[in-house]
Design brief:
It is built from 5 helices and 10 strands, in the order αβββββββααβαβαβ. α4 links the parallel β8 and β9.
Amino acid sequence: MNVTRRNLLRVALPSLMAPVLGQVQAAPRRDHDSAALWLLLNHAKQRLQVMQGNKSILHYSNVSWGRGGIGLKTRVGDNVTPVGEFRVRWINERSQWRTFFGFDYPNPNYAQLGLMRGDLNNDQYGSIIEASRRGHVPLQNTPIGGAIGIHGLGDANTAIHRATNWTQGCIALDNAQIDHLAQFVTVGTRVVIGPETATS
């Protein structure tokens, strides 16, 4: 029996996305050092939290994210901030956005979804998987997007930042906040983004 791509996605998508959605949680996974700091985007309270273990040690309010909301990112230009668990893979302290903490997006979960949807070819998929295995920056110029991270405003309008979610998929803080956050972030810092969270 022939299985169409649509049927394949209908059957496989729930199990494929379980690793993405299942990692959207307040508590760190068991294989992580409980003393390590990590970041949690608290959608419900519109703030970015610096976490240690399952305790929030400080937070930044008035955080903005993608104009397309927080969810399953499927293509470049959708303006969606991708839900899931990521790692900071590079830091640009001379970004137009003041400082940019770049994520390992697309990660293997998104690469697998992109391959199944036909948005990525085998070479692109393989490159992303290999980058993840080595802890390197994955392909950034892909049909499912790239250059996702946390950044400041640079010269952007502070009033717009406070009034609406305005980015193309990144998480944005104001310049003072990004300067303060920099003391807690290194290459390898874990970041969890979820549509909802009960963490206080």
